[in-house]
Amino acid sequence: MAGILSQHLQNLSLKTVTTAVPMIMPVRSVYKQPKEYPVPIKPFRNPRKKHYNPKFKMDRQLKVMKMDLPDFQEREKVDEMTPDEVRAKMKEKGIQPMRSWMEKPLNISSTAGTFEQYVPPEGDGKISATTAAGAMQKFEFLGKKGKSMMAIRKIRQFDEDFDPKEFVEEAQDIYIQAHEALAKFDKARLHELVTERAYPLVTHQAYRKTIHWQFLKSLEPPRLMHARSTHVVTKENVFAQITVRFHTQQLLAVYDRFGRLIHGSEVVARDVLEYVVFEKHLANTYGVWRIHDKIIPDWMPPRQPIRNTYKFEEPELDEEPESTEEATTEPAKERAEAAA
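The structure assignment produced for this chain is given below.
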């Protein structure tokens, strides 16, 4: 039994066997579609992948616009950035960097009102100087003249050629030119003759109006009644104000946009008593005297109001029947026809 097993083991020993049959390799079958149509010829492309026609190269470049998309998380990054980095980032975007202070440059070319306003005496222009009331007014004027002389002395520190007698004539010319510019509604000329504070007051309700104004004569020569000076913000920034009294005769007529007279008259002259305040920026080398305000005392009678014009339309009346008999017979006929 043992011999049989040993013989079988010898027969099962590994030996190389050579055969004439070739080894069969696996091959993948590929299906090819028959070419029924001709294959289109593709354009030649070089290895750099450039367009075959470089003629419109710039147009193709401008066809696409590169845009920087907003960074929505930028606010979170700003909190972590230093002030210098924030400033550089805003300069990069063309935004004015914020300052640590909130000051802005201001040009103060006129004051906001009339300081130490002159109070005209009651009955001025009507009471004679020979009466007791007129003499009292003269005495009060002399008592208030001290401060005006101090202000005139301050004005002469900036303008050596200032003379009160010559100034009143110059003030009257400014007064006449300002009214003529307002009648023509010349805005550029008005800005040269009135201050920034007085401009909206002068041009109020003057739009679309036709103004005819004429200076006839002076009933009394213009007089310098009041002079004051003050500084704004700093002591070097000095302003001066002078109140001049005008007693003149004028013609004024105002027409609306439809040509209707709403105020004054072109025939009847009126006597006008006014106290006009002139202001100058003394600290400015090129400062000029301009109209700043007009003082209207409480005792002065109210001015003539503007007459508003309205269109009168007659009410439409319903047509009445010619006679009462026809009015009573017509409803009776309608009832009879309805019953039939």
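Interim note for the steering committee: Strands lie at 210-231, 238-255, 261-281, 290-295. The mean pLDDT is 80.
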